[in-house]
Write a structure and sequence with these properties.
Layout lengths: L5 E7 L3 E8 L4 E2 L4 E4 L6 H14 L6 E5 L3 E2 L2 E2 L14 H9 L3 E5 H12 L8 E7 L3 E7 L2 E3 L8 E2 L2 E2 L1 H4 L1 H6 L4 H19 L3 E5 L18 E4 L6 H18 L1
Parallel strand pairs: 1-5, 5-8, 9-14, 14-15
Antiparallel strand pairs: 1-2, 2-3, 2-4, 6-7, 9-10, 10-11, 12-13
Bound molecules: beta-D-glucopyranose.
Beta-D-glucopyranose (BGC) binds next to helix 3.
Amino acid sequence: MGKKSQILGVDIGGTGLKCAMIDVDKGELVTEKYRELTPQPSTPEAVAKAIKGIIQRHDYKGPVGCGFPAIIHGGVAKSAANIDDSWLNVNVEELFEKATGNKFFVANDADVAGLAEVRFGEGNGVDGTVIVLTIGTGIGSGTFLDGKLMPNTEFGHLLYKDDIYEKHVSNAARKRNNLSWEEWGSRFCEYLLHLEKLFSPDLFILGGGASKKMEQYAHTLTCETKVIAAEFQNDAGVLGAALYARSRMKKKKK
Ligand code: BGC
């Protein structure tokens, strides 16, 4: 069991499950990140079992914040793009609560990663519209107006030709198409220009694996909006998940 200011943050991805104890006042990891592979197929039963194992391993009885790679509305998964189809309409919070006995607060993975950046990272104190894009297997988006989250924006699923943008500009698409970072950057820039036209943002923050390579493609990003790399990169998911749990707990008390 941790201290009151410490909450376990869990980040569920298509390939990996990560967790760490987070000091939600300081915005810091207080334990090393633990990581294991997401079970395949990533069905609700298999993932719930893995989450139970992780909680037991940490001998943790407190509330858990959790980022999940789907639209999450009222704790329920409303899409299943990079996770098993059988998650559709599953109440993720209830499922994990039943499996573990812990209280769970679940939200979209990019929304919670964005929370970490906006509360404690590069987006802190930025007024106006901040769009955080996580670039990995898919493209996740966390959208903030004056620091307040507008959940489930799913900008990776905006239509592009006969498909959706994430199929064209994710890191998985870069690998699949054998693109250099520079070639991928020019493609990604088109996507940013499209978002810029639609939302007139004040800042783009790029997270996920691709953010670490930004020096290799930054010169290809010609949009007017400032573009910066996320501060927490791969830690944003676990950190933001715990911050999300705390914000829900605060709301409940009011
Ligand atoms: C999902 C989003 C998720 C993103 C990153 C997309 O395919 O639709 O909900 O945030 O992948 O994991």
